[in-house]
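Let us practice reading a record.
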Amino acid sequence: MLEARDIDLYYGASQALRGVSLSAAPGRVTCVMGRNGVGKTSLLRAIAGQQPVAAGRIEWAGEDITALPPYLRAARGIAYVPQGREIFALLTVRENLETGFAPLPRMLRHVPDEIFDLFPVLKDMLHRRGGDLSGGQQQQLAIARALVTRPRLLILDEPTEGIQPSIIKDIKRVIQTLAGRGEMAIVLVEQYFDFARDLADDFAVMERGEVVLSGTRDDMVEEDVRRYLTV
């Protein structure tokens, strides 16, 4: 279980998050929605340890991880797929996947066959450089690399951004498959309402660094949510 409570976060003198709280549980997808610049990515970076928080507390599996660096969070099963994918363009697909070995004990340093069941296209591209893949294929590679770390919390920042519809469907299927196993908590930032609605078990809508709407999928009122997504 992830519990982020009353998080404040600053970039210099600019406050990006104001008292933000978010939870995520195994077997459930928590979707964070909102316009550009409202603090969604800052929240994910705080959870992953890539940006220090000024106030508040982040707990994972009952442990206070607020002060832990990213590599120790990764070792505890937290994987982050950033916006823009950030794969290694000059490494092959196989080499990109193998960078996921870093937080793992030696006995687990192999790419599970399940990766290629979830993303069959990658099996045929193992020797191609990451930079030669299409945007959608790079997104699949970025998610696959995160899964190589055997995460218990998977954090995805706008996985549909700039992706063709066919691959969006594939990514949606993968997220549903992973959540359906009941072992992994998933936190997903998304601007497209339909994609988020179809996946979300729980949701939070952000505006100006704060959570302004939250609840379960049954609580979600489309008109209210869309009001915070349209420009």
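A brief commentary: Residues 59 and 173 are 29 Å apart (CA to CA).
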